[in-house]
Amino acid sequence: MDQTIKKKLARNWFKTLQEVICQEIEELEGKKKIFKIKNWERGKNSNEGGGQFRILENGKIFEKVGVNFSEVYGKFSKQFRNRIPGGDKNPNFWAAGISVVMHMKNPHVPAMHFNTRYIYTSHGWFGGGMDVTPCLKDKSLEKWFHNELKKSCDKHNKNFYKKYKKWCDEYFYLPHRKEPRGIGGIFFDYKKENWEKDFNFVREVGISFKNIFREIILKKYKKKWSNKQREIQLEKRGRYVEFNLLYDRGTKFGLQTNGNVEAILMSLPPVAKWK
Question: Could you tell me the CATH number of the domain that includes residue 132?
């Protein structure tokens, strides 16, 4: 399959998924709250792509949720090109993807994160995943969440869940705190074994995320919570901020390729605390 067609298929899927996820969120909110939409362009002097980020704040369920789509292209800087596979051979790049971060009003509902992307330099690959960050322990939620991930992964390869769960556990870890960010999930990168199979898996992950976040929210968003539990939530958000600013690859990639700062930092919670 021609690379132009691959890029178009990936790009169209990420944009479609943005629409589907936003519709689901607005339905959960009762359509009284709708997303604020902002389009942006990369590059002041030439067309280097851009994207659209959508943010909904102060809803009955979501304190803040962002759903971003981007399609960007151009040349890596000399300092950055050696850090990206294929960048040393060809500094030109193209990248498209979707990123979702949910910070909930109710401390019983965990923060949730999802992203998938397709990047092309001298060769192309998929990456992405999803993870959940509860501020209150819930072993039954953890078990259910990982069972759902395993079922989705097993449809494509029986080895995927174990491999990508391990990668997620290693990635979403705060070395300076010596603690994980949350209860994990799946994470994969540099996926380029078979384009059509990889693309099918990426779509599976996207649909699974939509179903998973809906199920978790409906189970938990009406539960009563205390001021103490709210304080725990705010402190847990502080850890979330630390990871995203210190370690997150997507944040670094976006900032180092002149992405939209507002869209990149969409992942940060509206309120957080540190102790």
Answer: 3.40.1500.10
Cα–Cα nearest to 183, from 230, 213, 138, 218: 138
In this structure, the number of other CB atoms found within 10 A of the CB of residue 221 comes to: 16
Helix (H, G, I), strand (E, B) or coil at 136: coil
> Would you say 127 and 106 are in contact if contact means Cβ atoms under 8 Å apart?
no
Which pLDDT does position 45 carry in this prediction? 61
Global confidence as pTM: 0.94
Which residue range forms the structural domain that includes residue 151?
3-267
pLDDT tens-digit series, residues 18-41:
999 999 999 999 977 899 999 998
Q: Measured over all CA atoms, what is the biggest interatomic distance in the chain, rounded to whole angstroms? A: 56
The residue to which tokens 């769960």 are assigned: 165
Rounded Cα distance, 272 and 265, in Å: 14
The one catalytic residue in 103, 113, 123, 156 is 113
Q: Which amino acid is at 219?
A: K
Nearest CA-CA partner of 35 in 70, 64, 12: 64
> What is the torsion angle, in degrees rounded to the nearest 10, for the CA atoms of residue 25, residue 268, residue 12 and residue 260?
140
- Rounded distance between C-alpha atoms, residue 78 and residue 268, angstroms: 29
CA distance 89 to 82: 9
Amino acid at 1: M
Residues in the chain: 275
Whole-angstrom CA distances from 115 to 149, 166, 217 are 15, 17, 19
Q: Is residue 90 part of a domain?
A: yes
113 assigned to active site: yes
